[in-house]
Amino acid sequence: MEGDKASVVLLNCFVSPFGNRVKIALARKCVAYEEKPENLAAKSPLLLSSNPVHGKVPVLLVGGKPVCESLVILEYIDDAFAGEPLLPADPYARAQARFWASYIDTKLPECARRVWQSPKGAAAVEEGRKDMVAVLKTLEVELGGKPYFGGAALGHVDVALVTFVPWFATYERLGGFSVAAECPALVAWAARCAAENPCVAASLPDGEAVFQFVCGMRKHFGLD
């Protein structure tokens, strides 16, 4: 496959749930890569030239060729590198996995931003909290009694969602709620993902580090 012998570089920010998805997928496939950290307040020329449309992380450079957008990158990694796939082989199951990954990206980041990018006490915080809880509850229903979203093993939807888990403490502290109280089965799933999958545990930042990063961003933008 084309990626097997090419140099692999990941442009990422350590708190990015989108970039950290890519880290999980690369680790799962045992792909050696170089991670280049990005300062999102002063984006590098390499990032801007590699992703001129959005100027965002993550970008995966394979043999110098850029692949952008995290869900696209996950599918590229599945196609380009040998190893256990994240997407199932069955066409219907693949369609369902893509649907739920798209649901996560359509719903969760938008309500999360209202929680952590709004001034304290703003109506947007409460609205974001309510919407976030609704999204997480919907995902908990979809998980049901399964160990993972796709069944018995870590898959595409799990990787799409689990990288938001280090942000939960930030959402809770700024939004005034408890994910564990609202969605206990989802919290148990998150613990399972990390405990049973070294590629997950090694790829996620510390929750307190995420919170301190967000506090710095909020201070920079005059939100606190």
UniProtKB/TrEMBL annotation:
<dbReference type="InterPro" id="IPR045073">
    <property type="entry name" value="Omega/Tau-like"/>
</dbReference>
<dbReference type="InterPro" id="IPR036282">
    <property type="entry name" value="Glutathione-S-Trfase_C_sf"/>
</dbReference>
<feature type="domain" description="GST N-terminal">
    <location>
        <begin position="6"/>
        <end position="85"/>
    </location>
</feature>
<dbReference type="InterPro" id="IPR040079">
    <property type="entry name" value="Glutathione_S-Trfase"/>
</dbReference>
<dbReference type="GO" id="GO:0006749">
    <property type="term" value="P:glutathione metabolic process"/>
</dbReference>
<dbReference type="GO" id="GO:0004364">
    <property type="term" value="F:glutathione transferase activity"/>
</dbReference>
<dbReference type="InterPro" id="IPR010987">
    <property type="entry name" value="Glutathione-S-Trfase_C-like"/>
</dbReference>
<protein>
    <recommendedName>
        <fullName>Glutathione S-transferase</fullName>
        <ecNumber>2.5.1.18</ecNumber>
    </recommendedName>
</protein>
<dbReference type="InterPro" id="IPR004045">
    <property type="entry name" value="Glutathione_S-Trfase_N"/>
</dbReference>
<dbReference type="InterPro" id="IPR036249">
    <property type="entry name" value="Thioredoxin-like_sf"/>
</dbReference>
<dbReference type="Pfam" id="PF13410">
    <property type="entry name" value="GST_C_2"/>
</dbReference>
<comment type="similarity">
    <text>Belongs to the GST superfamily.</text>
</comment>
<dbReference type="Pfam" id="PF02798">
    <property type="entry name" value="GST_N"/>
</dbReference>
<comment type="function">
    <text>Is involved in the conjugation of reduced glutathione to a wide number of exogenous and endogenous hydrophobic electrophiles.</text>
</comment>
<keyword id="KW-0808">Transferase</keyword>
<feature type="domain" description="GST C-terminal">
    <location>
        <begin position="90"/>
        <end position="213"/>
    </location>
</feature>
<keyword id="KW-0963">Cytoplasm</keyword>
<dbReference type="InterPro" id="IPR045074">
    <property type="entry name" value="GST_C_Tau"/>
</dbReference>
<dbReference type="GO" id="GO:0005829">
    <property type="term" value="C:cytosol"/>
</dbReference>
